[in-house]
Structure formats: C-alpha cells, structure tokens
Amino acid sequence: MEDTIKIISRIKRQVRQFALPSVTITSRTKDPYLVLISCILSLRTKDKVTHQAGKRLFALADTPKKMIQLSAARLARIIYPVGFYRTKAKTIIALSRRLLSDFAGKVPRAQEQLLGLEGVGRKTANLVLGLGFGVPAICVDTHVHRISNRLGWVRTKTPEQTEEALMRRIPKKYWIMLNTVMVAFGQHICVPVSPFCSKCTVQPWCAQRAVTRTR
Hints:
This protein is an all-alpha fold.
C-alpha cells in the first residue's frame, strides 16, 4: 500500500502541468447536476470540446427546469461537435425530466438511483458521487483501467473488476481524486500506445504490463 500511495502522489505532482479534465473543472461549481451533464457530454469526446460545449450549454440552461425548455434539436446544435450530440441531447432532456418528476429536480445521491437515470452507467454514477457530492467512489474509465493494469496494481479484464480491486488496494481518501490524476496522466504520459516511459516519474515502480509500442 505504501508504494501505491507513493505512486499516486508522484503522478499527482507530474500532472500539475497539464489541463484538468473538463468534468473536474465543472465540479468546481459544486453543482451535481452540472457535473452529471458534463459527464454525459464528455463520453467519447475530447476534453477541450466537452468544456466548450458545457460552457455554451450552461450559459443557457443550468438546471433541469431550464434544460427541458430547450428542444432536442436546439440542444444538439448547442453541444455540437461532442460525440453523438443528437443522442446526448435527447438523453439530457429525458434525464432532466426524470429528475423533475421523480427527484424534485435534484440529482439523487445514491448510486442505485443514479444508475436508474437515462444515459448513466457506473463510471458516470461514481464520478457524480465523487466530484458532485464528495462521496468516496472510484471512477474507472479507460485510463484508470489501462494504467492500473500497466502498473501491476491489478490484473483485470473489465472496469468493474478494476473498481473492485482498486477499492481493496487504495485508501478511501484517494478514491475521488484518482480519476482526475489518472485521466491527465493517461492523456499525456501513460498513453495507450508508445507511452512516454522516459518522462514518467513512476517508471521505477511500473510493471509495464501490456505496453504496446509502434515501430
């Protein structure tokens, strides 16, 4: 566990030079609804695009009540060019209506209720719990899954397995921040193919499992 904490601390220091993930920036508002919508916008979309789309959208609609006043077509135009923007527009309106009808316009704090919302999977639910409510949860996206296996922390095949393994390995006080630092680390240093091991501050502790390099 001591090495794990040391690695997390080193990664955190190294990624200070990089931009924060868009959802982490949105979480500074302390508004779980904006965090939730930002999570949906971010799926299969680059952070810069997500951030700009969120700024445009939240300037017009930052509550479920305001959001449902927008048509799906207009919302799609506002958030373009995020990935699957038409589908996401419909999802955002549907879940906003659901929040108003079932939760008095508030984002539920329970994971089970979050998972029952339109477009919300386990990754998004855990990110909302952590960044939106400050509830300890480990959000495992492609970066966290890849890096955890590459470091040798886990030997897992699915994000769900990785989440369970990391919960046993990592102290709870590091759960919320883990996704933020791992995303930045995975985007700039520990990239999927040909990672920049020579620049990596945790290379001495890395098992380098499943590292693929281009010729």
